[in-house]
Every structure is written in structure tokens, then in C-alpha cells.
Amino acid sequence: MATRILVVEDDLLNRMFYHEVLGARGFEVQMVSDGAAVLDEVDRFAPDLITMDIQLPHISGLRLIRRLQRQEETKGIPIVAITAFAGKGEEQRIIEAGARAYLAKPVSVDKLVGAVEGLIERAH
Predict the structure, then answer these.
(1) How many domains does the chain have?
(2) Edge-to-edge strands of the sheet including 79-83?
(3) Which stretches make up the Response regulatory domain (predicted)?
């Protein structure tokens, strides 16, 4: 069975990019564009890894990361945080919230694939 990745991203072009890149590597990819739908989709799809945009409609990615890390059934899911807001101290704040990797937009194919594959390897 393919490794399942939930892509949480509100920008359509970014979602398409992540889907194409990760799908081409053999991952099963499901996408969510609204922060309010993330928790339900995590329960339904049971991802092995999540890529999380930080600036989302309705609820921030940072808040979602914290919530996922507090729940027993989801705290083991590795999260790659991806954000265009790469201000000073932002990476530290995101890692402290529970993300295991941080990428600043725009994200290159190599950085995205490297972060995802590295976390999946460490999880197994």
C-alpha cells in the first residue's frame, strides 16, 4: 500500500504542484484547502504524513499542528510545515508547535521530496 500524504494548502497552484510532485513519487495524495476540514480529513484518510500550510482560511496551520500533536491518535503523524511567512523566529515557533520539518515558500521539488522522504524513512 502506498504511503498516504495529506496536503493542507489553500492555494490551488501549490496544491496542484504538491500533488503532481508527490504523486509522481508513488505517494497516495489527498488534498484539503480549508483548515476547518483538516481534522475530519485526517480521521477519514489516515495519512502517514501531513504537509501543512501555515496561513489557512478559518484556522491557522500552527493551531492545527498543536491540536494534532495533543491528540493521542494523531500525535505520531509527521508534519512538514510550509509557509510563505518566513519571519525571524517563525521556524522555531513552528517546530516547537510539533512540526518535524519546515519549508519556506516557494518550495523546490528537491526540498519538498527530501523533507517528505526523510520523515517517512525516520518514521519506519
Answers:
(1) 1
(2) 28-32, 4-8, 49-53, 79-83, 101-104
(3) 4-120
- The CATH number given to whatever domain includes residue 106 is 3.40.50.2300
Parent domain of 75: 4-123
Peptide bond into 106 cis (omega under 30): yes
Cα gap 46→60, rounded to integer Å: 21
Tell me the three cell numbers of residue 62. 500552527
The CA-CA-CA angle for residues 4, 71, 50, to 5°, reads: 25
C-alpha cell of 102?
A: 519546515
H or E stretch covering 82: strand 79-83
pLDDT confidence tier of residue 90, bands split at 50, 70 and 90: confident
Residue 75 main-chain phi, psi, to 5 deg? -65, -20
pLDDT, tens only, 21-69:
999 999 999 999 999 999 999 999 999 999 999 999 889 999 999 999 9
